[in-house]
Amino acid sequence: FLLPRGSEGRVPADYEADLHLGYPLQMGPVSLTMLVDVFNILNRQRAVVVDQRYNISEFDDPSQFCPKGSDANGCNADFGTALARTSPTSVRFGVKLGF
Q1: Of 3, 4, 10, 73, whose CB count within 10 A is highest?
Q2: Phi, psi of 25 (to 5 degrees)
Q3: 92 alpha carbon, distance to own chain's centre
Q4: What does the alpha-carbon distance between residue 90 and residue 92 come to, in Å, rounded to a whole number?
């Protein structure tokens, strides 16, 4: 690591919105509820983890500098890019039976 972990700042704050809908149907003594869940309706796929490794292997010259995006001489071309993002929008359907 070029700098102490966490010293280059943080990933942006993240928020998301989910939606849950249920429609109950009464059928005598039994209730049947149709369910729909929509997760991350805003579809904000923000970075939650970034690559903090400046180099892949040790440098022979401690003053070596890595140009952004370079993978030559042990440099990490992915330095500062997102390794993990929040999940995209997804939908789940369900049925609940109550008696």
Answers
A1: 73
A2: -125, 125
A3: 19
A4: 7
> Mind listing the pLDDT tens digit for each residue in 7-60?
777 777 778 899 999 999 999 999 999 999 999 999 988 888 888 777 766 676
Q: Distances from the Cα of 55 to the Cαs of 4, 64, 68, in angstroms?
A: 14, 10, 11
Cα dihedral value 25, 27, 28, 32, nearest 10: -60
Q: Are 54 and 69 in contact (CB under 8 A)?
A: no
**Residues 19/81, Cβ–Cβ less than 8 Å:** no
> Could you tell me which of 99, 98, 97, 92 has the C-alpha nearest to residue 21?
92
